[in-house]
Amino acid sequence: MSTPHISAEPGDFASAVIMPGDPYRADRMAQAVLVEPKIISDVRGIRAYTGEYGGRRLSIMASGMGMPSITIYATELYRFYGVERIVRVGTAGGIAAHVERGDVLVALGAHTTSAMNELRIPSVHFSAVADFRLAAEAVAAALGDPQVKVGTVVSEDHFYFKVPGAMEALAAHGVLGVEMEAAGLYGVAAAEGKAALAVLTVSDHLLAAGRDMTSEERETQFDRALELGLAAALA
Ligand code: HPA
């Protein structure tokens, strides 16, 4: 069996999938955390791995960039491969004043500029929310770390275009950061009756000046986001 975008066989995927955006990150994560990772799909440069982590089966597969990409993979995983939980482990730009580079965001909900969820139920402005249990497990695993912030993000279609004033207005509404996938993922999870969460490392800040993270800091904090994502996915 294969789907248009995944070449795995039935049963190849674990019930939990960790999903970074970048396919190279997925390769490195699989090597770093999985015991005996096996490549189960390789289509369009998106490799999927299944192995063991802490004695449990776990899969890792990248989403690519943006909501059209992540919604394709998430739909096929949930609908055709028996996947129950997808935890996106990615990056975000900070927008709230109290968010700093290197922080980890647990995205309880995702506002969006995308029409993807609007199309689901005509006349409804859909609320894209994380699975409560996954979010609670990620927050519990953070053990009160002040660098882990819990709240909403905004999922945008554009990386380079911003409506003037929009980021400031979102920050004034308590939105922590901006990324490009969570709202799409949460919409698919709702439609398929499955669970999803996004845990995001803040790689830059759109509204606060300051130095960028060093590559070492990026890796360390990315590991932290992965740690919380694993705790949620395997709880
Ligand atoms: N926009 C969208 N996604 C991002 C950004 C951004 O500015 N920074 C990191 N991920």
Query: Could you describe the largest sheet, including whether it forms a barrel?
Result: 5 strands, mixed, barrel
CATH class: Alpha Beta
Class by alpha and beta content = alpha/beta
CATH architecture term: 3-Layer(aba) Sandwich
The end-to-end distance, rounded to whole angstroms, is 29 Å
Helicity, in percent?
25-40%
Approximately what portion of the residues adopt beta-strand conformation?
25-35%
Rg calculated over all Cα atoms: 17 Å
The number of strands is 9
The tally of helices reads 6
Fold-level CATH name: Rossmann fold
Mean pLDDT: 95
Question: Which kinds of small molecule does this entry bind, naming each only once?
Answer: hypoxanthine
Shape call: globular
Order of helices and strands: EHEEEHEEHEHEHEH
Could you give the order of strands across the largest sheet?
Answer: 5-8-7-6-9
Number of domains: 1
Poorly predicted runs are none
The CATH superfamily is: Nucleoside phosphorylase domain
Structure description:
It is built from six helices and nine strands. The radius of gyration is 17 Å and the shape is globular. Strand 6 (104-112), helix 3 and strand 7 form a beta-alpha-beta unit. The chain has a single domain (16-233), classed as Rossmann fold, CATH 3.40.50.1580. The chain has helices at 23-33, 67-80, 132-141, 166-172, 182-192, 215-233, and strands at 16-19, 35-43, 46-53, 56-61, 85-94, 104-112, 148-155, 177-179, 195-205. The chain has a five-stranded mixed beta barrel, surrounded by five helices. Helix 3 (132-141) packs across helix 6. By secondary structure, the chain is α/β, with parallel strands linked by helices. Hypoxanthine binds at residues 91-93, 156, 159, 178-180, 203-204, 206. Hypoxanthine binds next to strand 5, strand 8 and strand 9.
